[in-house]
Amino acid sequence: MKHTNHNYRDQAEMLVHALPYIQHYRGATLVVKYGGNAMIHRDLKAAVIQDVILMTCVGIRTVLVHGGGPEIEAMLQALGKESRFVQGLRYTDEETMEIVQMVLCGKVNKDITSLIQQAGGRAMGICGIDGGLLQARRFRAAGEDLGLVGEIETLDTSVLEGILDSGAIPVVSSVALGIGDAAGHALNINADIAAARIAAALGAEKLLLMTDVPGLLRDVQDPASLIRAITKPELEALKREGRVSKGMIPKTDCCVLALDGGVKQAHIIDGRLPHALLIELFTDERIGTMIA
């Protein structure tokens, strides 16, 4: 392929333009919640892996927290296990929890870890049980029993700090160690909430939630109405006006949870766009919503 001086100049300018951002984030801790289409489609998956490795190479301490809802659902169906929901939340009995643990901590976690290794990065796959990272009590929704669904009580980030200090990328699945009346059980934790709590416990500069939507929209029907930056009070006002869609409420709640815990900024970004993380971090383009 023929390159002109113009091509080279454009490429050099792109790198120089990224320099202030790289300098700013060097040594900072960022927590990425990885889920949605970016976990399913091969090209998007490869782009996320490349982004995370590049972030680590320029000195960003990057933690990847992943979900795995579609994989869990597929395994439940394959085994003929019917899902039961209580107030919109999946009831997790002993058998379902075994499948959740097997899929999340086993297959999905190790697949992501393996992809990072194959692409030239260093990763360590762990779940919330390892090193007592996440300890949780049973979560009850308005008094309703959800089975082995957990609410994080305590975090011990020493295992994460050790992995980050070694220059590797921790890949975390959101299964917690049960305490109280759940002692001896693994508990299923919402991955967005786990990412927000981990970001706060690590004193992270940013939490980045990868989703299947452009970000927070003023009009749900209009992708062009993307809100690129919003403060916490402005967000609360939008919620009171009923202008935050139902599906976006838990995402924004997780962002607020992280901010309340001391995280400087939380981002909801469109994981359907290749290299969404690099564009959001290292360019002036804002491809999602930043809450600060």
List keywords for this structure.
292 residues; four-stranded mixed sheet; alpha/beta; single chain; Carbamate kinase; 9 helices; eight-stranded mixed sheet; globular
Task: Produce the secondary structure layout.
Elements: H1 5-25, E1 29-34, H2 42-57, E2 61-66, H3 69-78, E3 85-86, E4 89-90, H4 94-118, E5 123-127, E6 134-141, E7 144-155, H5 158-165, E8 169-173, E9 175-178, E10 186-188, H6 191-202, E11 206-211, E12 229-230, H7 232-240, H8 249-260, E13 265-270, H9 276-282, E14 288-291
Parallel strand pairs: 1-2, 1-11, 2-8, 5-8, 6-9, 11-13, 12-14
Antiparallel strand pairs: 3-4, 6-7, 9-10, 13-14
Helix pairs in contact: 3-4, 6-8
Give an account of the 3D structure:
Helices cover 41% and strands 24% of the residues. It is built from 9 helices and 14 strands. It has an 8-stranded mixed beta sheet, sandwiched between helices. Strands 7-6-9-10 form a 4-stranded mixed beta sheet, with helices on one face. The N and C termini lie far apart (44 Å).
Point out poorly predicted stretches.
none
Number of strands: 14
Topology-level CATH name: Carbamate kinase
Return the CATH architecture: 3-Layer(aba) Sandwich
Continuous helix count = 9
> Briefly, what CATH class?
Alpha Beta
Main sheet specs: 8 strands, mixed
First-to-last CA distance: 44 Å
Bulk shape: globular
Helix content: 40-55%
What is the string of helix and strand elements? HEHEHEEHEEEHEEEHEEHHEHE
Structural class: alpha/beta
The amount of beta strand, in percent, is 15-25%
The tally of domains stands at 1
Mean pLDDT: 93
Strand arrangement across the biggest beta sheet? 5-8-2-1-11-13-14-12
Radius of gyration: 19 Å
Question: CATH superfamily, called what?
Answer: Acetylglutamate kinase-like
